[in-house]
Specification:
With 157 residues, the chain is mainly α. 62% of the residues lie in helices and 0% in strands.
Length: 157
C-alpha cells in the first residue's frame, strides 16, 4: 500500500473535513496527501505527506525510534522483519522449529531472571524482557515467512 492510500483510508473513516479540522490544516492539503505524489513526475497532483516524511527520516538515520514511538501511540509495538531463512541457514523444519523454541526459552529465562532476585521487575529488567520479546517475534515472523514460501518440503536442504 502506498502512503497516500493509507492516509486516504484513514481520512475516509472520519472525512477529510473533520481530519483537516482536527489537524488544524487546510482541507486542500489533506486532499493532496490522499493523492499519489511522485517527485519525478510533475503531473502528479499529490503532496509529500507525513508518512513519506517519516519513511525518509528512517532511511536517512537508519533509526526506527520514530516508528517505534508511532506504534506505541497507536497502542502497539514495532517489530522488525528479519531476513527470511536463506540458503546459508539450514531449512529443515526440525532445526528451525528448535531455533524458535530456543528463542521462546530465552524469553522465559529473561522473565525468570528478572523476577527471581527480588520478586519485582524493575524498568531496566522490563526493557530486557521487551528486547527478548521483540527478538522472538522477529524470529517467529522469519519462520512463518519461510513456511509461506514453501521452504520446508522434501526437496529443501
Amino acid at each position: 500500500m502506498r502512503s497516500d492510500e493509507a492516509i486516504k483510508h484513514a481520512a475516509d473513516k472520519i472525512g477529510v473535513k473533520s481530519l483537516a479540522a482536527t489537524l488544524r490544516l487546510s482541507q486542500a492539503l489533506v486532499y493532496k496527501w490522499c493523492q499519489e505524489s511522485d517527485p519525478n513526475d510533475p503531473d502528479t497532483s499529490g503532496a509529500r505527506n507525513p508518512l513519506d516524511r517519516i519513511a525518509e527520516i528512517v532511511h536517512a538515520t537508519q533509526d526506527t525510534q520514530v516508528v517505534e514511538w508511532l506504534c506505541h501511540q497507536a497502542g502497539g509495538f514495532f517489530v522488525r522483519n528479519t531476513s527470511p531463512i536463506n540458503e546459508d541457514i539450514p531449512t529443515q523444519l526440525l532445526v528451525n522449529t528448535q531455533r524458535l523454541v530456543n528463542e521462546f526459552s530465552h524469553l522465559l529465562m529473561t522473565v525468570t531472571k528478572s523476577i527471581e532476585d527480588d520478586g519485582e521487575i524493575e524498568p531496566s529488567e522490563a526493557e530486557r524482557i521487551r528486547q527478548s520479546w521483540q527478538q522472538f517475534k522477529s524470529s517467529a515472523e522469519a519462520f512463518t515467512i519461510a513456511c509461506e514460501r514453501g521452504s520446508f518440503h522434501h526437496g529443501a536442504s
